[in-house]
Each structure stands twice: as C-alpha cells, then as structure tokens.
Design a protein that fits this description.
Layout lengths: L6 H18 L5 H15 L3 E11 L2 E12 L3 E6 L6 H14 L3 E6 L6 E6 L2
Helix pairs in contact: 1-2
Length: about 120
C-alpha cells in the first residue's frame, strides 16, 4: 500500500469540511463555504491562505494567474464547489493547480448535496 500524504492534516481538514457542511447545509455559494472553512481552520489553529494567486508563465512571459480557493499549511489545496455534481473538468482543474503550484495534495469538495462529497488527489 502506498504512502498516505499528510494523513493527519487530511483527516483534520476533511473533518472540518464535514462540520461546515453539517452546520450550513447545501445550496449556498462557494464563497460562503470558503469563508466558513476559513473560520474553522482558524479555530483549529491550522495556517491557511484564501484566494492564493499563482502566476502562470510561458516562454518567460506572464500569461495568466490561477487563484486557489484555500491553500492549507503550504501543503494542500482545497478547491470548493457548490454544484449538482463534480465533473472531470473540475478534477483536471485541481490537478493543474497542483502541478503549477508544486503542491502535492489537493481536495475537490462539493457542498451541494445531502452530504459533503470530496475527492483526493496526490501529484508527484
């Protein structure tokens, strides 16, 4: 069986996501869940940055910027959604974010359902 990357941090963060979903329920905007998640991370003493920008370069020219919803302890990216279902495009987006940021671990979390749905991605 392979290595579980950042297991303790992962368990804590997923637990906080479940808590946010339980307290707020489904159907709100992604920004609301992002703000609530930030409060839970602060209360848990876990360092994070909301809306962290990562510039993208091509041929040494800045061609764009991607913004991660939450970067936790410089070791995990959370991409939060409030949609009817997660899609392969959303998964590809997170994988690209991980590749560009050089962060190994990411979670795609969907708050729009009767329970929190999440997918874990490890790169590198």
């Amino acid at each position: 069986m392979g290595e579980i990357v950042f297991k303790e941090l992962s368990d804590r963060v997923v637990g906080l996501g479940i808590k946010v979903h339980k307290n707020l329920g489904a159907g709100l905007t992604e920004k609301i869940y992002e703000r609530a998640f930030g409060i839970e991370l602060e209360n848990a003493g876990i360092p994070y940055v909301r809306q962290k920008a990562y510039p993208i370069y091509y041929d040494n020219k800045h061609i764009g910027t991607y913004i991660a919803d939450l970067v936790i302890d410089d070791s995990m990216i959370l991409e939060l959604k409030s949609v009817s279902m997660l899609t392969p495009n959303m998964e590809a987006q997170l994988i690209n974010y991980l590749r560009l940021s050089k962060i190994r671990l990411g979670y795609l979390m969907n708050f729009n359902g009767s329970r929190l749905v999440f997918r874990r991605f490890v790169c590198g």
